[in-house]
UniProtKB/TrEMBL annotation:
Organism lineage: Eukaryota, Metazoa, Chordata, Craniata, Vertebrata
One Gene Ontology cellular component annotation held by this UniProt entry: microtubule
Name listed for the protein in its UniProt record: CKK domain-containing protein
Entry comment, domain topic: The CKK domain binds microtubules.
Organism encoding this protein: Cirrhinus mrigala (Mrigala)
Keywords: Microtubule
Claim: Transmembrane helix is one of the keywords in the record: no
Length: 94
């Protein structure tokens, strides 16, 4: 999916602060919405849905939270609040 995309900047969605990978997103610069390319998570994420923002340090080989609420090209990953994760509901027998 990443090869098919015309985007040149990708964002990782983490499940929470433990930095567990969930999905890869691209950002629409006009709307600032993130659109899922692959993985598990909401199809589209608006800037107001973002909880924490992370930057990757290649020196330390780790992600660190940055004190920002604005998505930009310097952002590498983000999390969303717990209530936005879809819960699997048990299916009703037919």
């Amino acid at each position: 999916e990443m090869e098919k995309s015309s985007a040149n900047h990708f964002l990782i969605l983490f499940r929470d602060a433990s930095c567990q990978f969930r999905a890869v997103y691209t950002m629409n610069p006009e709307t600032e919405e993130m659109v899922r390319l692959t993985g598990i998570g909401p199809r589209v994420i608006s800037p107001t849905m973002v909880e924490s923002i992370y930057k990757y340090s290649s020196d330390r080989k780790q992600f660190t939270v940055i004190p920002s609420k604005t998505m930009s090209m310097s952002v590498d990953a983000f999390t969303i609040p717990n209530h936005l994760w879809e819960r699997k509901r048990p299916g009703t027998p037919k």
